[in-house]
Design brief:
The structure is a homodimer.
Chain A (H helix, E strand, L loop, with lengths): L1 E5 L4 H13 L3 E5 L10 H6 L7 E5 L2 E4 L1 H9 L9 H31 L7 H22 L12 H10 L13 H11 L10
Parallel strand pairs in A: 1-2
Antiparallel strand pairs in A: 1-3, 3-4
Helix pairs in contact in A: 1-3, 1-6, 4-5, 4-6, 5-7
Chain lengths: ~200, ~200
Amino acid sequence: MLHLYEYAPSGNCYKIRLLLTQLGILFQRTHLDILNKETRTPEFLAKNPNGRTPLLELEPGKFLAESNAILFYLSAETQFFPVDPWERAQVMQWLFFEQYSHEPYIATLRFWISYLHKAEEFAIEIAKRKEQGYAALRVMEQHLSSRDYFVGEKYTIADISLFAYTHVAAEGDFDLSEFTHILRWIDRVKAQPNYISITD
Amino acid sequence: MLHLYEYAPSGNCYKIRLLLTQLGILFQRTHLDILNKETRTPEFLAKNPNGRTPLLELEPGKFLAESNAILFYLSAETQFFPVDPWERAQVMQWLFFEQYSHEPYIATLRFWISYLHKAEEFAIEIAKRKEQGYAALRVMEQHLSSRDYFVGEKYTIADISLFAYTHVAAEGDFDLSEFTHILRWIDRVKAQPNYISITD
């Protein structure tokens, strides 16, 4: 059985649980407390030298890291990854956008504010990253103003990847109330068959 | 003809030039001076709402952003992207590692120090990011200690992506002299057919 090593509240880990559930694939979960540095132990570093979750063990000793690479691997040959090469390229574009222009701002603020409870200590850095996070949200809002899903008018791993931290952005003190296209897209994702919430 | 919008010294843009050259594909280049905010003009934002280079125009009005998504698109069905699903997954893992754990540290320090010339002004932030950059280099060094290329013992887009900023890391004040496996890998990449340098 697939084995997911995860920090459960992480959106990056939730991405994998959501896709696996929507694919109907059973998996085991091991929770690692990153606040206790459980991803930096010699035992875990032997599994993932980069010391991060999620990490998927496909069979004993065979590991895949990086949330969006795991989405790519699991969705191959399924409805969640397009067949058309140009649509595939656009999915990848959004996955890299998510990890480079979105997650470092929107996920990081959520972690600092709602999990580390260091909003005051990190106030200057939070203000800088909030600006970048809103820039990413504006790019998404513009894109969704003329379509229902990110690529090819179908729900794909691009939506799963971007949904993971966007729908809990309020926990990082982002106000989505004026991002009406994003809010409607969030509702569309939540209405997908076999949807599970980030706290499931 | 393919049209590459680029900030020429960027490693992210160099990745695309290197792969296109090794594929024997002709392309046009338009240089945008990011120091002059030429990627934030209304004209460029109409092409890429995220306001970044590289941007590849495949045909008039058809644009693809994100360097590693462009590598993925161009390498499909070529020797630079594996056929095996597990090797494909590993290539993607390294591409996301590059954008999340490597580029924000190694590329950013190079830009601040050698292009913005702000080593003193950004000294505190540089010290923090240098630690993270060395952590990424240690992950690469360990991986290369038992293999010649990142995935499947073949030169792939994983090598192109990681090579782009690693081989010029000294411009970000990183000392590679003790990373002997990385140095030998750099030599192997430079020896590939149709290799071009970042200043070509």
